[in-house]
Amino acid sequence: MNGLTEKEFNRRLVMYLDGALAPEESRNFLDAIMESPEQLAKLEQEKSFREFLRKKVGRRNVSSALVQSIKTKISDPSTSSY
After folding, report:
1. Which of 17, 20, 23, 27 has the fewest CB within 10 Å, making it most exposed?
2. Per its UniProt entry, which superkingdom is the organism in (predicted)?
3. Which residues contact 13 (CB under 8 A, 6 or more apart)?
């Protein structure tokens, strides 16, 4: 194993796939998991799952009026229901 706990591996995996790691951190992460066939398999599985979601799950388009309404409600404290 490469010294990464499962929790740390999972945290870095998500950050890596989300593009949240700096370039050097990404390289270090990939270098570290190259030693672990199990972790490499998890990386490939997660990449495949994300690709499946991108291709198969459609995003609905929302109107610009809805977007503006949400922005207005967020920025105007008098419209809050709390």
Report:
1. 23
2. Bacteria
3. 29, 42, 43, 46
